[in-house]
Amino acid sequence: MKIIRFQAPAGPEYGILEGETVYRAKGNYATGFRRGEPVGELSQLTLLCPCQVTKIVAVGRNYAAHAAEHGDEVPSQPLIFLKPPSAVIGPGEPIVCPPQSAQVEHEAELAVVIGQRARRVAAADAWRYVLGYTCANDVTARDLQRSDGQWSRAKGFDTFAPLGPWIVTELDPTDLNVVCRVNGQVTQQASTSDMVFKIPDLIEYISAAMTLEPGDVILTGTPEGVSPIRAGDQVEVELAGIGTLRNPVVSG
Question: What value, to the nearest 5°, has the Cα angle with vertex 166 and ends 227 and 46?
Fold first, then answer.
């Protein structure tokens, strides 16, 4: 199943995408989503971020090659940080490079969308708390990340958390090809099998510290190859079995 959110006349709504046809979604995170009446063709609708987050929990240095390209060691336990909901944008919305930074970079990632409230979940039970998966770009002001000594500002600017284009359920996320392209040129390519800490372990670790709510997102880390993006660029994050998240870049 592909779950989307789209802009309707009365406000955002959830939908189910089958082929190129969108159906209104009935149900919710607790009861599950099911297909309702048809709404229209995908090309006729404006897609939004496919989930409503209360928080984004991101994982740093979860690919050894990415840690190495910055001269960092792989941590002995997951290195987590938060991105604010105000950073979220959907497919096609522009990433805004802020004037405070001279080095904004892309980070292509698999995003895990939580389906039910998760607190102190054991890794063995983690999969049943997952609704599905989508594409993410953990946009980062790399120069500010270095100068600040912590990551909140560098990772938290408005528009620095593109998500989409939809949530795919019933997908095995353990060996998916992750690709990032800037203006059509491949800059990152790896498999989710290269993650240091796997998804069940991340859910156990995070939920031991903070309750994960339905719609919350875990960003699982980025592979090597991160590079600067600038106004005028087009960034694509593609994950096998999910789709492609596309965002233009503008200056702020």
Answer: 95
DSSP summary character for residue 19: T
Q: Look over the chain and give the mean of its residue pLDDT values, rounded to a whole number.
A: 97
Q: pLDDT tens across 109-123, in order?
A: 999 999 999 999 999
Other beta carbons within 10 Å of 112: 27
DSSP 150-209: SSHHHHHSTT-EEEEEEEE-S---TT-EEEEEETTEEEEEEEGGGBSS-HHHHHHHHHTT
Percent of the chain with pLDDT over 90: 95
Contact 201, 122 (CB under 8 A): no
Instruction: Say whether 1 sits in a helix, a strand or coil.
Output: coil
Distance CA 246, CA 243 (A): 10
pLDDT of residue 72: 86
Stated as kind and residue range, the H or E segment containing 122 is: none
Q: Which pTM does this prediction carry?
A: 0.97
